[in-house]
Structures are given as C-alpha cells and as structure tokens.
Amino acid sequence: MRAIFKLLRFLRPYWRDSMLALLSLILVVALDLSIPRMVQRLIDHGILPGDLREIQRAFFMMLILSALDAAFALMNNAFSVRVSEGVARDLREALFLRIHSLPLPALDQWSTGGLMVRLSSDAAAVQRLVQITLRIGTRAPLLIAGSILLMFQTDARLTQAALPLLLLTSGLIGFFLWRMEPLFATVQERLDRLNIILQENIAGVRTVRAFHRGDDERRRFEQASAAFTERNIRVMEQMALMGPSLSLCLNLGIVLVVWMGGWQAAHGGTTPGRIAAFVNYLQTTLNPLLILANLAQVWASASASAVRIHEILDQSTEAEEPEEAVDRLPALRPRVALEDVSFRYEGSAGAPVLHRIHLTLEPGQIVAILGPSGAGKSTLLHLLLRFYDPTEGRITLDGLDLRRLRRERFLARVAWVPQEPSLFSGTVRDNIRFGRPDAPDEEVIEAAMAAQAHEFIIRLPEGYDTWIGERGVTLSGGQRQRIAIARALLMRPDLLLLDDATSAVDLETESRILRSIREWMREGLCIIVTQRLSTARRADRMVVMEGGRVLGIGTHAELLGSCSLYREIYAAQIDEEILEVAG
Amino acid sequence: MMWGIRRATSTVERVVSQRRGTDRPSRLEQARDPLQAMRRLLRYLRPYRARLAGVGALVSISTVANLIGPYLVGRAVDSWTIHRDTAGMVRMVLAMLLAFLLGSSSDAVSGMLMAGISPRALQRMRQDLFDHLQRLPLRFFDMRPAGELISRLINDIDAVHQAISQNLIGMAASLLSLAGLMIAMFLLNPVLAMASLVMGPLMIGSTAWITRATRREFRQLQRNLGELSSVVEESISGIRVIRAFRGRERLIQTFRSRNQAVYESAVRANTYALLLMPLTNQLGNLFVILIAGLGGWLALRGAATVGTIVAFISYARAFVQPLRQISSIYNALQAALAGAERVFEILDLPPEPPDPPDAVSLDRVRGELCVKDLSFEYVPGVPVLRNISFHVRPGQTVAIVGPTGAGKTTLANLLLRFYEAEHGSICLDGYDIREVRRGDLRQQIGVVLQDAFLFAATVMENIRYGRPGASDEEVIRAAQLAGADVFIRQLPHGYVTVLSEQGSNLSRGQRQLLAIARVLLTDPAVLILDEATSSVDPRTELQVQQALRRLREGRTSLIIAHRLSTVRDADWILVLQDGAIVEAGTFRDLLARRGVFYRLYMSQFEGRAI
Q: Is this complex scored with an ipTM above 0.85?
C-alpha cells in the first residue's frame, strides 16, 4: 500500500488532467442517476395525466442529458487515458534511467528478465490502477453512494431494511474471494508445472526421442494435466456458486422491498412509482459492488508491482566522481600497473576472485592472459574498465590511480571487445560507430578491414547499411566478433582489451586480425584474454592465471621453464586444438 | 415489470478472469475458418452430450425464471396497490421467491456441471496435442524456434479454455434471454417491439466498428511495445558495452523516442477501446428514452397502456445487457477459435508413420553398421548427403570431419531415424533400420549432443532418464565412470540437487559429463557423439575427453569430430564435403595422401610463429 503512495509523485505532472477526469466522472454519475428520475417524471407527470407537452419536454430533456452524459464520459476517457499512459511512460523512463545509472555491482544482482518485468508488466499494473481509479474505480463507489442516497430520498424506511442486505452481499463477495484465493495460487502453480513439461519436451525433443521416452513424457504430462484440471474444476465450481448466490441475495432483497413497500403502499405510505425507483436503485448497486471486488485485486497486484518498482528506484546511483578528479587525458603510451590488487564481488563470502595481483604492463606490447575458466581473467579486464573497483590495492595508469581519473575521459581512451559481442539492432555501420558516432565512413571501413570484417560486410545484402539484430540479418558468431573488434578499433584506443574475442574466428583469420591489431596499436597496450594456447602464443608476453592468482609471466620458452600450469596446459592443448575448418 | 437482478455471473467471471491477467491483446485475433474450428472444438464436447443437454435445459429454466421473476414483482406490486388483494399478493410473492430460487439454483447447478465439462474437454485436447507432438517428425521442430512454438501453444489453449468455460454458457443465456425478451415485448406491444428491433443491429454494428478500430490500434501498440522492449533488453544485456563505449546518452535518446511512440499508440488504442462502454451505455439510455417518448405518444393516442410502457422501459433496460454481452463474448470467441485453429493445424500434421506390425524387434546388436548409397535432402532439390557408403565393424570408432554444412549432423539424424532416409539404406547388424522398431533402434544407439539437454529435475533423475528402472547404485556408478561423481557430490544436495531450467546452474562441461553418464547408464551398442566446437576450460575439457574415451570402449562409435585428439584416436576417418565422402582412411593414410584432410590438419599450424 505504502509503495503505491510513494509513486504518487508520478501523478504530479498530471494533476490537472486527473482533476478534470474525476470531475467529468462525477458529472457522468450524476447524469446516469438522473435518467431513471426523468423517466419516472415522464410517467407521473406526462403519460398519466395525458400531457403531450410534458412528454415532449421530458423527452428532449432526456436526450440532452444523454448527450451530455456521453460527452462527459468521453471527456473522462480521454483524460484518464492520458494520465494513466503518461504515468506509465514516466515510470518506464524513470526505471530505465535508474537502471542505466546504477553501478554494475548493484546491477549484477538483477537478471535481465527481472528488470524487464519491472519495466513492462509492473509499469503496466500501475498504469491499470491509475486508469481504473480515474474511471470505474471511482465511479463504482459514487454509484453505490448515489444509489443509497437516492434510496433514502425515495424511502428512508425501505432503505434501512435494504441496507443490511447490501452489507450481506458485500460480505458474500469477500467470502468467495477469500475461499478462492488459495485455489488461484495452486491453479497457477500447477499450470506453470504443466507448461514447464511442455517446454522441456519441445526444447529437448532430440533427447526425448533418442532415449525413446515419449510414452513416459506422455504420462508425466497427463498427471500434471489431471492435477491442473482438478484444481481448475474446483475454481469453476466456486465461481458457479458465487454468481447465483449474489443475485439470489439481491433478488431476495427486492422481494423484501416489494413486500414491505407494497404493504406500505396499501396503507398509503408510499406510491408504486417510488417502489419502482427504489428497486431500480437497488439493482444499480450490484454491478458496482462486483467492480469494487475486482478493484481490490487491481490494487493488490499494483501494490506488489509498486514494491518491485521501488526495489530499483530506491537503489542509489553511481557515486559522484571526486571533485578533484583528474581531467587531463592519459598519456598516449599507457603504462598500466596493478599494485596488490584484490577483488571480491559484493556480498560474496568465498575466496576472492582476484588475490593480491602485482602486474606491470608496458605500452607497445600485446600481452595475453591465459588460464582456465574461473581464473579471474575477465574480472581483471572489468577492473581496468572500471566496471568494478578493486576491493584492495590500486590500479594505476602512468602512476595515477584509476579512481582519480574522470571516468568519461578515461573510457574514451579504452576499447574493449567482450566475450559476448553484444551488438545492437541497427545497421552494421551504426554498430561499428557505436563508440564514435561521428566517425567518417572511411575510418569505419578502415577499422572493418583491420578486423577482417570488411570482406563479409560488403557481401551482405546492403553492405554497411544492412540491418542486424532483431528483424535483421543474423550473423554468425565469428562475424559478430569481428564487428565487435572493428567497433573497438574505430575508437583508436590507447588501451585495447580483448576478452576471448576471437574464439569463433578460424585460426587463419585470427592470425590476420592479430597482425593488424599489432599495427593499429603500435604505441598502445593490448591485453588479450584467451583460453587458446595458439592465440596466447602470438602475444609478446603471457600472464598465466589460476584461481585469482598470477602463476607466471613471460614468453613461451620462459613459461615452459618456470610455470607448471603452463606446461600442463601446453601438454593438454597441443592435442586438443580445435580442427578449425574453413566452413 | 422487470424488477429483478438477472445473472451476476458474467461480471463475476470478468472479475475472476482479469485476476488471471488474460486481458492480453491476443484476444483480438480472428480465425480463418471459424465454422470449421468451431465444429472441431465441439467434437471435444461430444462425450459430455448428456450433461451439456442438462446444462442447456437448466440455462433455459433459469432464463425463463429470471425473466418471470421480475415480471411477477411487477404483478405483485400491482395486485397490492391497485387491487388491494392481500391473498393475491402473498401468492405472487411466493411465486416470485420460487422463480428466483429456481433461477439461481439452476444457474448454480448448470455452472457446477459446466465446471466438470470444460476443464476435462480441455484436458483431452491438451493431451491430444501433447501426444501428437511426441509423434511428429523432427522436421516440424526444426522448422520453427521452440520458444515461439511453446508460448503460442500455451496462449492458444488458454484462450480456448476461457471460451469454453465462460463464454459458452454466457452466449447461450444471452441468446435465450434475448429471445425471451423479444417474445415478451411482442406480446405486450408489437409496435414498440418493432421499434426495439432497431437496437440490435445498431448495438452490434457499433461494437463491431469499435472492435475493428481497436484491433488495428492494438496491433500498432503491440509493435511499438515490441520495439521498446527490444531496446530495453539490448540495453541491459549490452550494458557493459554501453558503459565502456560511453553510449548512455544516445541510448537514452533512443529509449525516449520509442517510449513516446508507445505512449502515443497506447493513448490511441485505449481511447478506442474505452469508447465501447459509454457508447453502449448511451445507446441503452437512448433506447429507454425512445421507448418512453414513443410509448408516451402511443399512450396519448390510446394505442398503449401506462403499464405497458412502464414494463417496456424495464424490458428496454434488460434488453441492452445481453446485447452488450453477446458482442463482447463474440470477440473472445473469435480469439479462442483462432487459437483452436492453430492447435488443430498442428494436430492435422501427419505424424511419423507408426512401426509396421511386422517390424523387426532388436534385442542386443553387435553394432555392425553398413551405409549404402545414402542420399538425403531437407529441401527438395538441395541435396545434403550424396551417395554415401561406408561400413563400420563392431567396436570401431569412426571420426567424421568436414566443414560446417557438410552433412555430418544429418548423418546422425538419419541413423537415429529422426529423419527417414529417402535413397539408399542404413543397416544395423544387417537389418535395414527402416524395418526395425524405432524404440528398439534408439535403445541400441546412445547420443551425446554438443549442448547436452537436461531437465528441471534432480541430477539422479537426469542421469536415469534413458533407463528409468536403474537403481541409485547404478546411477552413481555411471556418474563415477563419467567422472561426474566428484562435482555432483559438491552440489548443494548431491545427487538430489534439482537442476534449474535446462541445467543452467551447471557449467557447460558439467552438463556434458551428466549427458555422458546418462548414456553410459543405457549401455548402448552404438554411440553417436557430436563434439563441442568451442572449448570449455582445459581441465573440464580433459575430463570430458577422458569420459568420452571410456564411453567408447567396446562400442561402435560415430564421432562428429572437432578435435585432433579424437581424430587421431579413431580407427579411421571419413572426410565429408558438400554432402559427399571425399576421403576416407586412417589418420596416417590421410596425411600421407596430402589431400583435403592434410590441408585441414596443417591449417592448425599456420601462422603459429608470430
């Protein structure tokens, strides 16, 4: 509940529209309630006395009222839609901005799916609440209140007799919803189970067939399906009971009113017209009551969504950079030093990912980092990119602590090719230009050539203007990697970080790429993370890592002599080289 | 007069269905041949004919009762106030109570009956679909992405369920009460009744118009939402690249413009959708006003009595309700039929032909494999395999090498009869595999695929998958042989650790070790291995290789090879190119021949010395 009120600030820009929506809603309700009255007047003063002019007047009055009613209803629609969709849009934007200003350690706790849910269905749940509140959500109680008021006005005694009944009806609704609540939960659970079986069966169809388990799968599905069906039947039974009980309840009320009212009418206490109006108003309360029951659910789901939304909005953004952040650009020939660097992920209890690393990397070199997965190779690159900062120790660039450099200025000098190339929907050109949107075409092509991507790009349907990603051309893993390399080269970086960036490229192409990188990076420093020995051996120096520690640094010959893990990898991989086949 | 509450059921169901979040735009779809889909859907209800007849009778009773009840209320009021007839009043009230009780109870009973029908009919349909999926040729699954297929099936069945469980009764009741009301109105006053007839087309026409417009706008909204979510998704999965390349500001620009587009189309779509309520409301009002005006005029000319007009006004109010309901049910029904149609489309696809009655049943084979003149094409005119012939003696290991697209995987598909060979033959121990029972054949052949598929079940259940009857000890022994025992024991609950979806809580290498254990447990005579192309970390890789070596012992093995060590270990090597065997022989032979294989092999060492 409180989570929803915390979202009220998103309504602030729209308070005028909200007020107009509510105002038009009140007018709609008033007009809705006045039409039965007009009909009554037409009967009592027009038809009964046979007054044609009164009939005409009432008729046209009603037409006008009805037209006004329609106009106000449309007004209410227009304003409520604008407000609710506006709130949804602002909410999405606020979430998006927050996500993209969260520090990575905080962001790591979220799955992409979790973030997407908050941005889409949670924002939609809040939107639904706003819209419903500005429409039927307010209309229903207004109608109920109006009806009860008019019932009182029509006949106070009858109202007093009917009120307990209305309360009983509301109680009944509550009772049924309470009975169904746990049923709903289990229905959902069993449906999920059913869907998982279906999903596995389709995704793993080869496994199922190869092991000839079709019949068992069928039985498994049948059981889950039966369990779901059984629960479903129970829910439907509850619903089958709820509707008729509610209408029976109110119909009994009507009988009661007719009986009491008729008796009173017989003794001159009321008129038939009044009883008619009274019953009419009693009927009017049923639907709004049901709608209120519905609204409770909308509230519940919106408030759950609001809590989830706040989980993101309440996260603090990336720390402000220190005042004295160094603005000057790093030198063109960067010397990178890791001084006693340790790192562990926030909240993780196990061994640190990096443990007391000392490493000095000289400009003008290609350095390979080699080691089994989990050695901390990629993490090391992430620290250099300042996705994370070391838990202990420091990383320096020409003697300056990275944390003291202005992030934007520093990153402008660094380029990175991640393990997963992460291309974006757009043209090939857009993707290569991602880090330098204003780069001229010649430079784009030059970078693509260096990355050995130009050849295949010009063979794409529309060359550099080919749309890739969703609804576009699908590229192979090797092609994606080469575009990612071109993207990095176009930055003309002083520090180039390749994270297993050529794993899907055949050996020959890889060697050409590495050759052009060497030319491209003549002055700068290039760090290559790899699991392939053949790749590592093309570097000037190799750093062998395992378990977050550096086990050896040097050339092939040096490492063969000094590092036992290197010898082990060498012995294993000389045999395990992948048969790269020009496909 | 119509002074009673008629059917609260529809609103209740709306309350309930909205909780389940079924208000997705798929409700706006249409079937291509609604009648045909309807007919087939009704076939699922056939076993419940008797009960459905009961439901029909009950719905008629309740409709009549619900129509009579309010009428009796009016009569009761009249008899008391006009005739001052207490005895008549008591009779009326009793009759009224009876009518209401009858109406509500038959509503409740028909609802209960229906609760036993529609979920069961749907269960049948779901099972039919699932059973059929087990028999469809693999071609069907290869043709479309699994994710899309699954979400479609789930949505479709849900739509059908909603339609049968809620709308069938609602539609019947609405039609019946419309008919009843029409009769009552014609009996009361034909002139006014004729005038009311205009309402039907007006209401349905305007609803249809709004629905069409809404459908169009929602489709646009759906597209815009799709674009927005792909921007968001990319931005999250690529967040590191965005940070490293300082792309944040530009990204926010893109997001803003997409978000604005969603806002604009959502406003449009919802404005149309929300038009429906006030429109039908006002049409209802207009109806009442027209009846009142026309009735008043008629009354003055003596063509109608006051009572008639009052009753008519009540009827007019009551008339609008089923009309409104019919049009909304109509939309839901169309969506359901569209869903049903897609389900039927799948059910209509021809399944794999069943094993012929005289199919050979195999017990234990030696593993002699003989492939003769085998040709195959997935798409007519595009041959994937051409005239392949080779012979493998029991216990031999054959490595198949060749570029991607050379037909290596197809060979495995044919051997397992995932696809049926069209020309040529494959014989196992001298039996043509097309004449062998599929189950028996697949039992003899163990497969380890590149990306091992695991189920969201325990480790134990996953290993046991190929031999459900295996004891725990046997499972553990298989795991030990596969070298998986060590890491399994380190899992939070050892062998009873439940794997998350598709084993995503395991590393790729670990998944492969489990898949190897699974095959070891089934002890097949023939093995098909599809080696992983990209390496896992060297240590696990080593374990996987050792496990595979153990697995191959004493079995005929066909390996789609990517690794030199495997090739060297093989008894002989088959080089495939463009669907044909271009070279075959032992490792030494092939190197000595200095042909395709030699070039492949030597490319390993090129450029190594930089």
A: no
